[in-house]
Specification:
Layout: H1 3-21, E1 49-50, E2 59-66, E3 70-71, E4 75-77, E5 80-86, E6 96-102, E7 108-114, E8 124-130, E9 133-142, E10 148-155, E11 161-167, E12 177-179, E13 182-185, E14 190-195, E15 201-206, E16 213-214, E17 219-223, E18 226-231, E19 238-241, E20 256-258, E21 261-264, E22 275-278, E23 284-288, E24 295-297, E25 300-305, E26 308-313, E27 319-323, E28 334-336, E29 339-343, E30 348-353, E31 359-364, E32 389-391, E33 394-399, E34 402-408, E35 428-432, E36 447-449, E37 455-459, E38 464-468, E39 474-478, E40 486-491, E41 497-501, E42 506-510, E43 516-520, E44 536-541, E45 547-551, E46 556-560, E47 566-570, E48 582-584, E49 590-593, E50 597-601, E51 609-612, E52 623-628, E53 634-638, E54 655-659, E55 665-669, E56 677-682, E57 688-692, E58 701-706, E59 712-717, E60 726-731, E61 737-741, E62 746-750, E63 766-767, E64 790-791, H2 841-859
Parallel strand pairs: 1-28
Antiparallel strand pairs: 2-34, 3-5, 4-5, 5-6, 6-7, 8-9, 9-10, 10-11, 12-13, 13-14, 14-15, 16-17, 17-18, 18-19, 19-64, 20-21, 21-22, 22-23, 23-63, 24-25, 25-26, 26-27, 28-29, 29-30, 30-31, 32-33, 33-34, 35-62, 36-37, 37-38, 38-39, 40-41, 41-42, 42-43, 44-45, 45-46, 46-47, 48-49, 49-50, 50-51, ...
C-alpha cells in the first residue's frame, strides 16, 4: 500500500464519519438562471421571450453537430443543451434519444440515452432545479401494450436516471412544465402534479389538450373545441372553465400567458378567431389573427399568420411592422435584447430589430427547418417544433438533423445572408366561375389554351368542361356521359379540345362551339383486378398528329387518331407498370411517370426502360406530372403523396426532379415542405413553372418557378373566402400564366414579373387593437364570473380525483400513479418532512450525500 492510498482511505473514512454525524443543511431552492430556456417557448408561460439575455448581433456560428435524426426544441440550462432526437426503428423499439451537450463547445456531456419510445418517435424535454440540483425530465410514449406515457427524470449533470413513471392506460404525454418543485404533466387528457424529487404523484384530474401552460397562480389547458381550464396548482381543482365551442377552432398544443392575459387558439363562442382571456377570471377580452399563439416580449406581441410575421404594441394597439423574409416564415420566433430571431423553412435565420422589423443580421443554417409532425417534412407549428431557444448568451437552432449554436460577435465568421423581402405589388387577376348559392362548387382542375386564346378547363365535380375568355366570361358544357370523371385536357392537333373520362373509359372531344363527341377506349386486360378499371388518365398531343393517353390501371400507353381509332401498347408488368402522366422528349421517345419510377418507351411500343426515383430521407417518392423542359431534359413532380391525383403530401418530400435523356435523376425539393407540386409546365421565360396544391393550414397558396439549374422561387397567390389551391396551369397568348384555383372556384392570371411575396401593410393582429388590461380587485381576482365562464370560487383543498384503471406492474425503477382515497388536508405521510417551497428535504439530503459519497469513491 502506498502512502497516497492510505491517506485517501483515511480521508474517505473521515468524510463518511462526518456525513454520518453532521446535520445536513439544505439551502433554499436555487432557481434556474434568469436567462435559461427550460421548456418549449422558453418558459412555463410559453412567451418565447428572454428579457435577461445579452445575446446581440452580429452573431457567429459557435458550433454545430450532426445527430442523424430530427432534433426537437432545445432546452438551455446550467451550461448545457438538452434535446431529443428522432431515430425511428419501429413499433416496440427505441425511436427517440436524449442528449446533453456542453453549451459553449457542443461536446456531448452525456448520452445518447434511449428513451422508452416504442409507440412514437416524438419526445420532449423540460428542466428544473430543486434544492440546487438540476433535473431533466423527458416525456415519451411507449408500447406495447397500446400507447402509454413515460416520464423519466435524469440528473442534469451526469445523465443518471433518478426515477420513471409509466402511465400504462393513459396514453402519451405532450409537454410538461415545472413550477416551485412540482412537475405538471398531461398523460392522455389527464393532468398530474408530480413531485420533481421523488416522482410521487400528488394528484390527478381530468385535463384538456396535449400541454400545460403555467404561471405562479394557475395551470391552463385547452382542447380543440374550447374547454379552456384554469386549475389550482396546489390541488388541480378547476378555478374557471370556458364552454365548448368548435367554431373557428384550429387546435394547438399550448397557450401563452403574459401580463395577466391568456392567448389561446381554442375555439370560442365569441369569435371565429383565437381568443384572448383574463388569466385570473376567464373573461373574454378579444381575439387575434394568427396561425399560432403569439410571442410576447413586454408590451410587444409577435404574430405569425400565413407566412407573415407581424409585430404589434399590445398596450396601444399600434401595428409596428410586417416581415415575409424568403416567403417561407413558419417557425415561432424568439425575442431577446431588442432582437427578434426567426428561421424559415428554407433554413434562412434572421435577426430583426424588435421595434422596426429591419434585418440586423442573417445566415443560412444549411438545412431545411421544418416540424416534427406525423406528415413527413411538413411545416407544422402544432407539432411543437422546430423552435429556437435563447439562453446563456447563445442562440440554439435545431435544423433538420443538425443542432447549431450562435454566439454574440462576428469572431471572423462570414454568414450566408438570406434574401431580403421584395417590395411592390403582385399583378394577379382572379376571375370567378359562376357558383350560385347552394349549388355544387365548380372546383376546376386541368386547363389548356385553345388556338383562339380562350382557356378550356375541367370541372370534375360538376361533370363539365368549360371555357373562359381572357376577359373572364365563362361558358360551361355538360359531358353527355354521367359521372365521367374528366381528368386531363389538351389542345388537339385538329384545333379541338380533347379530354379523358377516367370512370367511363372514354376520350372526349369538344369544339370551339361546344359540340361534344365521345370515343370509347379499351376497358381492361384479363390480368387487371376487377376493382381496378382501366380508364384513361392523362392525354397529350404527339408529334405524329395523334392523341396519346395513359390507361393507368390497364398498364397501357395508348394512341388515338382524331377519328377515334385506338392502338394499345401494353407495358410488361401489369401490376408495377401503371403509367400516370406522359410527355414526348426531344429524343422522340415517350416519357411517363409510374408509381415510384419514370418510364421511357419508343412510339412503336419497343425499347421500354424504367428508372427508379431515388428516395427522399429514406422514403419513396411518387412522381406525377411530367413535361419536356426547355433545356431538353425531362422534368417531373414528386408529390410526396398517396393520392397522385391531388398531390397529397402524406409520405416523402415534395419536389421537382430532372431526368436526363440518359436516365440520370436529380431531385430538387420545394422550399415549402409538403407543398404537393402539380400543374407542371414550361414557362414563356424559359423556366419551369408549377402550382403548389398543399400548404400547411395557415400558409398562403403558391405557385413556383424553377430555373434549369434547380433554383426555386415561390410566389404567393392571393387568398379569398376560400383558399385558392392552384392546380392546373397554362400559358396564355399574352405571355402570362393562367391557373385554376380549385377551392377558390376561380381562374387566375399571374404576371411573371410580379414580386414573390411582398410584405403587406402593418395592421393590428388583435381585435380590439388595444386589448383591455385585465381588471383586478385588490388582493384577489374574486369569485365572480366572466362572460361565458364557469367559475367555481375559491378552490377546495383537495380535488375530486377521477379513478383510472390500475396499471399492470412493469419492471425497473418505475413509479405508477396510484389512485388512493383523497388525502386529508395537509398531505400524506410522503410529504411529512417538507422544507422550503414544498421540497422534500430528506430526499434532497439523501441525494447530496449520495453524490458526495460517489465523488469521494472516484477520488479514492
Amino acid at each position: 500500500m502506498t502512502l497516497g492510498t492510505s491517506n485517501r482511505r483515511r480521508g474517505f473514512a473521515f468524510a463518511i464519519a462526518l456525513l454520518a454525524t453532521t446535520a445536513v443543511v439544505i439551502p433554499a431552492m436555487a432557481a434556474t438562471a434568469p436567462d435559461d430556456s427550460v421548456t418549449y417557448m422558453s418558459n412555463p408561460a410559453h412567451t418565447g421571450a428572454q428579457p435577461h439575455d445579452a445575446l446581440a448581433t452580429p452573431l457567429h456560428r459557435q458550433w454545430s453537430v450532426e445527430l442523424g435524426g430530427k432534433v426537437s426544441f432545445p432546452v438551455i440550462a446550467d451550461g448545457q443543451i438538452y434535446v431529443t432526437v428522432q431515430k425511428p426503428q419501429g413499433t416496440g423499439l427505441t425511436n427517440a434519444w436524449l442528449y446533453a451537450f456542453d453549451a459553449q463547445s457542443g461536446a456531448i456531456r452525456w448520452g445518447p440515452v434511449a428513451l422508452r419510445s416504442g409507440y412514437s418517435q416524438y419526445a420532449t424535454v423540460t428542466y428544473a432545479k430543486v434544492g440546487g440540483l438540476g433535473r431533466v425530465f423527458a416525456f415519451s410514449t411507449d408500447s406495447p401494450p397500446g400507447a402509454f406515457g413515460v416520464i423519466t427524470a435524469f440528473d442534469a449533470l451526469t445523465g443518471t436516471q433518478l426515477w420513471q413513471t409509466a402511465e400504462t392506460y393513459e396514453g402519451g404525454f405532450g409537454m410538461g412544465v415545472t413550477v416551485n418543485g412540482t412537475l405538471y404533466a398531461n398523460p392522455g387528457g389527464w393532468m398530474q402534479a408530480i413531485d420533481e424529487v421523488t416522482g410521487d404523484i400528488k394528484w390527478t384530474v381530468l385535463g384538456e389538450g396535449s400541454s400545460i401552460t403555467a404561471s405562479e397562480h394557475g395551470l391552463y389547458t385547452s382542447g380543440y373545441c374550447g374547454n379552456i381550464k384554469d386549475h389550482s396548482p396546489e390541488t388541480g381543482a378547476i378555478i374557471w372553465a370556458t364552454p365548448s365551442s368548435c367554431w373557428g377552432a384550429t387546435g394547438f398544443p399550448y397557450d401563452v400567458i403574459s401580463a395577466g392575459r391568456l392567448y389561446s387558439m381554442a375555439g370560442s363562442p365569441h369569435s371565429a378567431l383565437p381568443g384572448i382571456y383574463d388569466a385570473a377570471t376567464g373573461q373574454w377580452l378579444g381575439s387575434f389573427k394568427a396561425d399560432a399563439p403569439p410571442v410576447v416580449d413586454g408590451q410587444i406581441g409577435f404574430f405569425i399568420s400565413g407566412s407573415v410575421l407581424s409585430a404589434q404594441n399590445l398596450a396601444t394597439g399600434a401595428a409596428l411592422w410586417t416581415f415575409t423574409g424568403d416567403c417561407d416564415v413558419y417557425t415561432m420566433p424568439v425575442v431577446t435584447n431588442g432582437f427578434v430571431y426567426v428561421v424559415t423553412a428554407r433554413g434562412n435565420l434572421y435577426a430583426l430589430d424588435e421595434q422596426s422589423g429591419a434585418i440586423a443580421w442573417s445566415d443560412n443554417v444549411g438545412q431545411r427547418v421544418v416540424g416534427l409532425g406525423s406528415v413527413f417534412d411538413y411545416p407544422n407549428p402544432s407539432a411543437a417544433s422546430p423552435m429556437l431557444a435563447v439562453g446563456e448568451g447563445l442562440l440554439i437552432v435545431p435544423a433538420g438533423t443538425s443542432l447549431l449554436a450562435y454566439g454574440s460577435g462576428a469572431n471572423g465568421y462570414t454568414p450566408h445572408p438570406g434574401p431580403t423581402p421584395q417590395t411592390g405589388t403582385q399583378i394577379v387577376e382572379q376571375h370567378a366561375i359562376p357558383w350560385p348559392a347552394g349549388s355544387t362548387p365548380p372546383k376546376p382542375t386541368e386547363i389548356t389554351t385553345a388556338p383562339d386564346g380562350n382557356f378550356w378547363f375541367l370541372e370534375p365535380v360538376r361533370n363539365r368542361v368549360a371555357v373562359m375568355t381572357p376577359a373572364g366570361a365563362v361558358t360551361e358544357y355538360d359531358i353527355p356521359t354521367r359521372n365521367s370523371q374528366p381528368t386531363s385536357i389538351t389542345t388537339g392537333p385538329d384545333g379541338a379540345i380533347w379530354f379523358t373520362e377516367s370512370y367511363t373509359y372514354k376520350i372526349g372531344r369538344i369544339t370551339a362551339t361546344g359540340a361534344i363527341s365521345e370515343f370509347p377506349t379499351p376497358v381492361d386486360r384479363g390480368d387487371i383486378p376487377v376493382n381496378a378499371p382501366a380508364g384513361p388518365v392523362d392525354i397529350t398531343t404527339g408529334p405524329d398528329g395523334a392523341l396519346w393517353f395513359t390507361n393507368t390501371y390497364g398498364a397501357e400507353i395508348d394512341r388515338m387518331t382524331t377519328a377515334g381509332v385506338t392502338t394499345v401498347y401494353h407495358l410488361p408488368d401489369p401490376l408495377a407498370d401503371r403509367p400516370i402522366r406522359l410527355t414526348f422528349g426531344r429524343d422522340g421517345n415517350i416519357w411517363f411517370t409510374l408509381a415510384y419510377d419514370v418510364g421511357r418507351m419508343k412510339p412503336d411500343g419497343t425499347g421500354y426502360v424504367r428508372y427508379t426515383v431515388p428516395p427522399y430521407l429514406g422514403l419513396r417518392q411518387r412522381p406525377t406530372e411530367i413535361i419536356a423542359g426547355p433545356d431538353g431534359n425531362i422534368w417531373f413532380t414528386e408529390s410526396g403523396g398517396a393520392d397522385w391525383t391531388r398531390g397529397e403530401a402524406s409520405s416523402a418530400g415534395s419536389g421537382i426532379a430532372r431526368i436526363t435523356l440518359a436516365g440520370v435523376i436529380t431531385d430538387f425539393q420545394t422550399p415549402t415542405p409538403g407543398s404537393g407540386p402539380i400543374g407542371l409546365l414550361a414557362g414563356p421565360d424559359g423556366n419551369i413553372w408549377f402550382a403548389e396544391y398543399w400548404n400547411y393550414f395557415g400558409a398562403p397558396s403558391k405557385i413556383g418557378r424553377m430555373t434549369s439549374d434547380g433554383a426555386i422561387q415561390e410566389f404567393w397567390v392571393p387568398d379569398g373566402p376560400y383558399r385558392p389551391r392552384p392546380w392546373g396551369m397554362t400559358v396564355g397568348h399574352d405571355g402570362a400564366l393562367w391557373s385554376t384555383e380549385t377551392e377558390g372556384g376561380k381562374i387566375a392570371r399571374f404576371d411573371i414579373s410580379s414580386p414573390p411575396c411582398p410584405a403587406p401593410s402593418a395592421t393590428a393582429s388583435t381585435n380590439p387593437a388595444r386589448v383591455p388590461a385585465p381588471e383586478r380587485i385588490p388582493g384577489s381576482p374574486g369569485p365572480g364570473s366572466g362572460s361565458g365562464v364557469t367559475r367555481t370560487g375559491p378552490p377546495p383543498p383537495v380535488p375530486e380525483v377521477t379513478p383510472l384503471p390500475n396499471p399492470s406492474p412493469l419492471v425497473g425503477r418505475e413509479k405508477f400513479a396510484p389512485r388512493p382515497d383523497p388525502p386529508p388536508p395537509g398531505g400524506t405521510g410522503k410529504k411529512a418532512a417538507q422544507g422550503i417551497a414544498g421540497i422534500n428535504t430528506q430526499q434532497v439530503a439523501g441525494e447530496v450525500l449520495d453524490r458526495f459519497a460517489k465523488a469521494l469513491l472516484r477520488f479514492w
